[in-house]
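Let us work through a complete example step by step.
Step 1: write down the sequence.
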Amino acid sequence: MTQGSLFGSSARPARPFDIIANIDGGARGNPGPAAYGVVVHNAQGDLIEEWGKYLGIQTNNVAEYSALVAVLEYAVRENYKSLKVLSDSELMVRQMCGQYRVKNPGLREFYERAQALARKLLQFSIEHVLREHNRAADRLANQVLDRQQGRQS
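Step 2: predict the structure and record it as tokens.
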């Protein structure tokens, strides 16, 4: 698993995260109809918010970054001080942690927005998880796509 904090390590022990979010974005076709899902829990593991959004015709990576920006905007707007994000997008996680460069100009804007929002928090971490550990966010993204395409979910 890849994980990282944008704020590096410090001598003081890390406090528990105020919220933990599972995020997922997907496109049916690449590019194709795209959506994301976000599931947010508090430090005790209670579900506090979940949502999904249709994005139109986009790439899978744009959908993944859209989910990240959405949860960061949520955390800042709701005055949470710390956020841990779990995502099955290894590319996005590695880019956010500085292990990979963002070469795609279309993703650069999302990356820079996410970095700026993350800096508004006292503590931010992003971690890559396997797809089977991200089912709730994946389910939400697929429900949005199914509704948009006229399927029952």
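Step 3: interpret the result. The first strand starts at residue 3 and ends at 5.
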